[in-house]
Amino acid sequence: MKNLYKLFYIVLLFFLFTSTSFSNEPVAYIDIDFILKNSDIGKKSLEKINNQNNDNIQDLKNKEKILKDLEIEIASKKNIISKEAFDKEVIIFRKNIDQFKIEQQQIIKDFNDYKKKEIDKVFLTISPIINSYMEKNSVKILFDAKNIFMARNDLNLTNDILEAINKASK
Predict the structure, then answer these.
(1) Domain locations in the chain as residue ranges
(2) Do residues 161 and 32 lie in contact, with contact meaning Cβ atoms separated by under 8 Å?
(3) Segment 2-16, tens digit of pLDDT
(4) Overall fold of domain 2-169
(5) What pTM was computed for the model?
């Protein structure tokens, strides 16, 4: 019986001392990816990024084709040239392949750096626009839509902010 009273008092104290919080701060959310893909500034940056990526892919394909042609040429000489000369050409070919792999990794690294810089430029440009929109409309907290589990549609400010960004960028 004493244990029942102790449990009752603990539960009672727990409910008495827990407080609920209610927030009156206006919050909203936006879809950053949608804004990046559909704003004028974002479209220009994504186009630059895609062009750079296509150039890199084309360059790598050309180098790969040269290496394949060289491999075919070396394979065709296998029975014609001496064993030592063939081994020398194979060693040179392997060095070329290793160099190609190093160049490929460097191109990928450079592209990722370029992509990050371009996207950062976009965010630096649109952040003041979003901040001014938030001040005008008394929005205290703005979340990214991909981090929201569920919310009312009237809290989605994506289209309004997209319009403000496009107006400010002209």
Answers:
(1) 2-169
(2) no
(3) 676 676 667 655 666
(4) Protein Binding, DinI Protein; Chain A (3.30.910)
(5) 0.75
